[in-house]
User: Which sequence fits this backbone?
């Protein structure tokens, strides 16, 4: 099968030599070789993200940390800022876990506003607030830095951030934004095959879990961090092959540097928006648009499913329809993240123009 170039919001393109790293012979997950591998990827991740906080690399989807962040940090009540499908998922998970959930709810396409967060936190006491950095369904990038300034006045409320489709492609000062827990999946801006989740945990979040009545077993912060500090390994059998690939990819990311990666993603986002405004329109609120996923309004009434199929057939490229029943066919999405650059994004937009006759 011919390689298809991926412009969906994950999985995204992966370097061939990164994939080839997974072909190495396996070894025991309690061996010195594993200790060397895991400590390398954890410390390289800290270095790349410019954080002194604890880092966990778990064999799981990022959704696992959606769940464990609630189990670990919410005893009773959580405020969930929702502005699309994935932020709503975090709230739904909290409800399924029996927590009291108050929603700070926004129309899809609108961003979470710091002043609304402040008002909500002043009205009631919450164990935590959940917020998505980058709402993959709508292409919204929430102002985490400004929300983080608000959180400084509420030190007893944990700030939990889902950065699954942004971290690694959109710079965030984790400690400077008062974020207690932030997590991602590596198949997005980290340009890796799916299967690993990365979580950064503050000392305050660690301490709160230690003192909580219940927490996640598999995704427990204390369990993962303590095991790493004692043995430099994961508490349960890891996806060794994926971690070998992760070590290789992280070397590329460190070599390019977060600042340059952020700049490249910004350039891709700006190019895509300019193209969208020329031929269609953007769906997200002005001033709050994602740096990694553009959700484009289908102002021409084009059959998006048919367009995607024809672009695939002629150019072997994949982009995404709108997410879910609310946005399918009304929008389409271009993922500009990972190892893509402006030139490769232009290949897709040229293909769409050709097939759609724009």
Assistant:
């Amino acid at each position: 099968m011919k390689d298809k170039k991926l412009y969906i919001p994950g999985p995204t393109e992966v370097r061939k030599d990164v994939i080839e790293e997974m072909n190495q012979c396996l070894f025991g997950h309690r061996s010195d070789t594993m200790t060397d591998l895991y400590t390398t990827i954890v410390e390289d991740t800290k270095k790349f993200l410019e954080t002194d906080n604890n880092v966990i690399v778990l064999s799981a989807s990022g959704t696992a940390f959606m769940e464990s962040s609630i189990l670990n940090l919410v005893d009773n009540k959580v405020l969930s800022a929702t502005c699309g499908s994935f932020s709503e998922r975090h709230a739904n998970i909290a409800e399924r876990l029996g927590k009291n959930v108050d929603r700070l709810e926004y129309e899809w396409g609108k961003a979470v506003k710091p002043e609304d967060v402040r008002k909500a936190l002043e009205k009631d006491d919450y164990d935590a607030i959940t917020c998505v950095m980058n709402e993959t369904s709508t292409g919204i990038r929430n102002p985490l830095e400004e929300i983080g300034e608000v959180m400084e006045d509420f030190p007893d409320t944990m700030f939990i951030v889902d950065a699954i489709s942004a971290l690694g492609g959109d710079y965030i000062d984790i400690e400077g934004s008062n974020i207690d827990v932030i997590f991602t999946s590596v198949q997005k801006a980290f340009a890796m095959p799916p299967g690993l989740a990365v979580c950064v945990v503050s000392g305050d979040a660690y301490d709160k879990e230690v003192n909580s009545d219940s927490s996640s077993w598999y995704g427990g912060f204390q369990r993962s961090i303590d095991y790493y500090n004692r043995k430099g390994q994961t508490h349960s059998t890891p996806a060794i092959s994926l971690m070998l690939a992760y070590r290789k990819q992280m070397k590329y990311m460190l070599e390019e540097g977060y600042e340059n990666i952020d700049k490249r993603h910004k350039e891709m986002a700006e190019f895509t928006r300019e193209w969208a405004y020329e031929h269609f329109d953007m769906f997200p609120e002005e001033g709050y648009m994602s740096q990694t996923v553009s959700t484009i309004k289908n102002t021409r009434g084009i059959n998006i499913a048919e367009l995607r199929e024809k672009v695939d057939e002629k150019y072997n490229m994949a982009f995404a329809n709108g997410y879910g029943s609310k946005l399918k066919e009304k929008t389409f999405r271009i993922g500009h993240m990972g190892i893509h650059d402006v030139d490769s994004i232009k290949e897709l937009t040229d293909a769409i123009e050709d097939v759609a006759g724009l």
